[in-house]
From TrEMBL:
Pfam families, sorted: Integrase_H2C2, rve
Domain of life: Eukaryota
Gene Ontology terms, MF aspect: nucleic acid binding; RNA-directed DNA polymerase activity
All residue ranges annotated as the Integrase catalytic domain in the record: 170-255
Enzyme Commission numbers on file: 2.7.7.49
Protein name: RNA-directed DNA polymerase
InterPro entries noted in UniProt: Integrase_cat-core, Integrase_H2C2, Retrovirus_Pol_polyprotein, RNaseH-like_sf, RNaseH_sf
GO biological process terms, semicolon-separated: DNA integration
Length: 255
């Protein structure tokens, strides 16, 4: 084995096989047809389910007012792409003769189709479209799959989980903690002010805004000096760690 970062499972297999003398031989797909059934489409299962459910569909159609109304129209003349065969209403869609599923059985049909293999929206919809006519099928398939408990558990996020929030300690005192940040660039004024420095008191949520021409630490310090002259110095300042707030000059000012 030459791979440096070998997957643990593969390494374990390799160690188990070391005690045997064997030759690895490639076998083309044309010679593996006898095992392909394990990965093939569920279409045969759908055929079996379709034949078994037809009597129930006929009974449900007989109790559906909309289906009964269409059948009555068909007795008089042809109606759109519908036809009645042996008491079961069908609809021709893109050359296929599909059974019309009444409202009372649509959820059951879609759920059963999905649970045959817990396939995704695309393949579940494709299989249903070969046998059944269900209006707004895509929306109904998406709703069923989004509420499938098995799929929700299987598709849970893996890997590193999000960390917990670590709220900063703040005193219940006005002017104890400031939040500061820049807004901009904005449309320049006559005096070339393009940014706004916002200072927010963490306790009262009171906001002071100062126009600035840039986002340098020098301008931030100048505005904080104006703030200090009126309200004094805060105990701590919280920022987004922009360059103006992480520079050496700003660190010296806060020291």
């Amino acid at each position: 084995m030459q791979k440096k970062d070998l997957v643990t499972r593969v390494a374990r297999w390799a160690l188990l096989l070391e005690e045997f003398d064997y030759v690895i031989e490639h076998r083309s797909g044309t010679r593996m047809t006898h095992v392909d059934a394990l990965s093939r489409s569920l279409i045969d299962i759908f055929c079996i389910s379709f034949d078994n459910i037809l009597p129930r569909l006929k009974s449900a159609q007989d109790n559906d007012n909309e289906v009964k109304a269409i059948k009555e129209l068909l007795r008089i003349s042809a109606y759109e792409n519908y036809c009645d065969r042996n008491g079961i209403l069908y609809k021709f869609v893109e050359g296929k003769e599909l059974v019309v599923v009444p409202d009372s059985m649509q959820t059951e049909i879609v759920r059963n189709a999905h649970e045959k293999g817990h396939t995704g929206v695309k393949y579940t919809e494709k299989h249903l479209q070969d046998y059944y006519y269900i209006p707004k099928l895509r929306q109904k398939v998406e709703k069923i799959i989004s509420n499938c408990v098995h799929c929700i558990l299987i598709n849970q996020k893996r890997g590193k989980k999000e960390g917990l929030l670590h709220p900063l300690q703040k005193e219940d005192t006005p002017l104890h903690t400031y939040h500061i940040d820049h807004l901009g660039p904005l449309e320049s004024t006559n005096k070339n002010y393009k940014y706004v420095l916002a200072i927010i008191d963490a306790f009262t949520k009171f906001v002071w805004i100062y126009p600035t021409k840039s986002t340098t630490s020098a301008e931030v310090i100048a505005k904080l000096e104006i703030q200090k002259a009126v309200f004094g110095s805060p105990f701590q300042i919280i920022s987004d760690r922009g360059t103006a707030f992480t520079s050496g000059d700003f660190a010296d000012y806060c020291a």
